[in-house]
Design a protein that fits this description.
Layout lengths: L2 H6 L14 H23 L1 H12 L7 H12 L1 H11 L1 H20 L4 H29 L2 H32 L4 H4 L2 H14 L13 H20 L9 H23 L13 H31 L4 H6 L2 H21 L4 H17 L8 H12 L2
Helix pairs in contact: 2-7, 2-8, 2-10, 3-8, 3-13, 4-7, 5-6, 5-7, 6-7, 6-10, 8-15, 11-12, 15-17, 16-17
Length: about 375
């Protein structure tokens, strides 16, 4: 075993979550987490196939990407805060709050009468999704031993991939055979079941401790994330890259990053402790997660738009054409979790995935207006192998 594998191998003797709960109770908890995770994951992509129709109804094509952007800004920028607050107030109550917030955002998005309203309510959905994604992983760590986590995290990754498959497909079916508003209402039963199960079965040991929440750091995180995303989104489109608004937003983003880093260094209990970035494994994992997430979301968001507008297929078929890509994610997520649990070694899995992902993204970049749906399908399938 080389030094990299030694640094990240798993041992049953490692400090961990309890891992002492009865297996039946653990399985019920995992099912509860999976239902909520599926709800949030579906809503991350379900609008991809429905959005061309939504725009036709509500107008404002110039706001197309903001339906996704608002969701992911809210979910990613609040992730550290959800984790910190759960350390202070307990996982269960925060997890239930995240479910309720997400369901409220879904209802409001479904009744939106304009694109601006839809974007705001998608941000509320994203706020809840940030809590669901963060707390699901935290709860897994609480109830499983280190050796078991790889397997169940693989299952959670498989559920995420399955939900990503169902999202575009369900969105297309609902647009073609019902109404686009149902893409937001469809997840409410999943949320209700997960909420009830969390009340009845999510019993977690919790000891309240005295601590301080770095609200200043959380606010600075939100500021620089929004500033940089706005600059990337609007620069070169709404205004020139060298215009005052673009330069101002980029300057605000860079300044926000500098202030955020300074705040994290002096905060007693930082939102994102700087010491984490001294760990090679942490940096490597974040880089892989960023690259794979960017590639997956880009294909999932713009793939249906390309298929519907450029190759002239309906919403349902555009969702079906994404199935090969997502099916590959489902299979590799589950199998990777099994490999990690059985061997305790991580290195080969992300390296192999990164290589295949790079190849698939390059192949998809060759698609053009002359490409047929027959060409797009295998490209998506090959990309999924990552």
């Amino acid at each position: 075993m080389n030094s990299f594998d030694k640094s990240i191998s798993i041992s049953d003797s490692s400090p961990a979550g309890s891992g002492n709960l009865p297996k039946r109770q653990v399985l019920v908890i995992i099912l509860t987490l999976m239902l909520a995770q599926m709800m949030a994951a579906i809503e991350g992509t379900v609008v991809s196939t429905a959005l061309p129709t939504i725009i036709g109804d509500l107008g404002r094509r110039d706001l197309y990407t903001w339906v996704f952007t608002s969701y992911f800004i809210a979910s990613t920028s609040t992730t550290p805060l959800w984790g910190k607050l759960s350390d202070l107030w307990g996982r269960k109550s925060l997890y239930q709050a995240a479910i309720v917030i997400f369901m409220a955002g879904s209802v409001l998005a479904g009744v939106s009468s304009g694109m601006t309203m839809l974007i705001v309510f998608r941000a509320i959905q994203g706020l809840g999704a940030g809590g669901l994604f963060t707390l699901s992983m935290a709860i897994l760590a609480d109830v499983l031993s280190p050796r078991e986590r790889g397997r169940y995290q693989g299952y959670m990754g498989g559920i995420f991939a399955l939900a990503t498959i169902l999202g575009p497909l369900a969105g297309g079916l609902l647009v073609d055979y019902a109404h686009w508003r149902w893409v937001f209402f469809m997840v409410l039963p999943l949320g209700a079941i997960s909420l009830v199960m969390s009340v009845t079965h999510l019993e977690l040991a919790f000891t309240r401790r005295e601590a301080r929440v770095d609200y200043t750091g959380a606010g600075l995180l939100l500021v620089w994330v929004i500033a940089i995303i706005l600059a990337m989104e609007l620069g070169g489109d709404s205004w020139d890259w060298v215009s005052a608004p673009s330069i101002g937003l980029l300057a605000a983003g860079v300044g926000g990053v500098a202030l955020f880093v300074a705040q994290q260094r002096r905060a007693t209990e930082a939102i994102l402790p700087p010491r984490l970035f001294r760990l090679r494994l942490f940096n490597f994992s974040c880089a892989i997660q960023f690259i794979s997430g960017a590639a997956m979301l880009s294909a999932g968001i713009f793939g249906p738009l390309f298929l519907q507008v450029v190759t002239d297929v309906n919403a349902t078929r555009s969702g079906l054409l994404l199935v090969p890509m997502m099916l590959g994610m489902l299979l590799t997520s589950v199998s990777a979790g099994q490999v990690l649990t059985r061997t305790g070694r991580y290195k080969a899995v992300p390296i192999f995935g990164a290589v295949v992902l790079t190849l698939g993204v390059w192949m998809m970049s060759t698609l053009s207006a002359e490409s047929s749906t027959l060409t797009a399908r295998p490209f998506c399938s090959r990309w999924a192998a990552g």
